Automatic annotation (TrEMBL):
Entry protein name: Peptidyl-tRNA hydrolase
Enzyme class: hydrolase
Record-marked site positions (Discriminates between blocked and unblocked aminoacyl-tRNA): N9
Sites annotated Stabilizes the basic form of H active site to accept a proton: D92
Biological process terms in GO annotation: protein quality control for misfolded or incompletely synthesized proteins; rescue of stalled ribosome
GO terms under cellular component: cytoplasm
Subunit structure: Monomer.
NCBIfam families per record: pth
Amino acid sequence: MYLIVGLGNPGRQYEATRHNMGFDVIDKLVEEYNVPQSGVKFNAMYGKGRIEGQPVILMKPLSYMNLSGGPVRDMANYFKIDPETEMIVIYDDIDLEPGQLRIRKKGSAGGHNGIKHIIQQLGTQTFVRIKVGVGAKPKGWDLADHVLGRFGSNERKLVEEAQERACKAVEMILADSVDAAMNQFNKKMENV
């Protein structure tokens, strides 16, 4: 069984913001695969279903981004998930242009507080992540204002396409391998 985690912040004021990229991709997977909502457990919304024949848990921590690690740890422990081999975390990345994807098998938090907390709580940096580009903060802007802001109309199409590609990347990881997904989706998109 795979635990697929999308990071974001709960509440209407955060919907469709850059920082909620992980939530948005999970919502697309739920819709595409008709994954029923199982309720709330360990301060996270979750649903159980199948993607590419694999049993999955789709999860959105409700603890706010910077405290994502507790719910992820508790859910992984409860369902006996090995984070190093059976978990995928999807989140926003300001170091990638809007529309770009980057898949990694392990690594540091790279300044992302949600990932930093997950690493602290799990005690490992080895877990698959799908980073979805949201663009760098404009010069002079506060980082929080940038990541909690919404995309402009010129970026929206790129971001929606990236969310679709992130879903396809999850499918490829489950059906084939992380390496296959990295080869397919880590290429720089020409139209971005």
